[in-house]
Amino acid sequence: MDKQGPKIGLLGGSFNPAHSGHLEISLSALERLELDYIWWLVSPGNPLKSDTDMASFEARFKSAAKMATDERIIITDIEKKLETRYTIDTLLELTKGYPENQFIWLMGADNLAQFDQWKDWKKIAETVPFAIFNRPSYSKLSKTSVAAEYLNDYRIDERYAHTLYERKPPAWVYCSDNNNPMSSTELRKKLQ
Question: What is the pLDDT of residue 135?
Fold first, then answer.
C-alpha cells in the first residue's frame, strides 16, 4: 500500500462496559501490528445486540475513557457523529474521510465466530485488513467459522502480523496469544 498516514487500529463495540479484555487487545495490537493509535469506536447501537440491558451511550463512553489507560488509545464517538450502525458503513466513511490513514479492523475471536452475520461482511474484509485476537472458549469455533473458512486463503501467519497494514485487503491475521476471558456480559452479571 502507498498510504503514508498513521497506522490506526479500529476497535468497534458497545463497551457495555469497557473492560480489561478491550485494553489487552488494544495493547497487543499496538505492539504486534506496530500501530500508531487505536480508535475505540463506541457504538450508538449494535444491530446484533438487544438494547434491553444497554447502558446509555454517555455511560459507555465514560467507561471506555476510564479503561483506556494508554495515550495511544483514542475514545471516539465517530459512529454517533456519522450516524452509522453497521461496520461496513463506518469503514466506508472513514476510508473516504481519511484516505491517508492505514486502518486495520480489530476484533475478538467471538466476533469472527459470527462475522458472517454482519451486514456486508465480505465487503468489510475487502475494505481494510483485519486482525483477530484470541478469546478463550471461542478460538476453535472462530477458526472453523463460515467467515474463517471463506477467508482462509487471505490469512497471514501471525509471525508477520507487523506487516498486515502493508497488505491489500482481504488480508487478516489471527493473534493467538491473548487469553483474557473477560466479557462485558459477564461483567454486567457480576455487577448485578
Answer: 74
Query: Would you state the cell numbers that stand for residue 155, as one nine-digit string?
Result: 490469512
Nearest CA among 163, 127, 132, 137 for reference residue 28: 132
> For the chain, what is the domain count?
1
- Per residue in 59-85, pLDDT (tens digit) is 999 999 999 999 999 999 999 999 999
Position 154 in a domain: yes
CB atoms within 10 A of CB 182: 15
Domain that holds residue 78: 7-191
Residue 55 DSSP one-character state? P
Q: Determine, yes or no, domain membership for 1.
A: no
Instruction: Answer whether residue 30 shows pLDDT above 90.
Output: yes
How many Cβ atoms from other residues are within 10 Å of residue 123's Cβ? 15
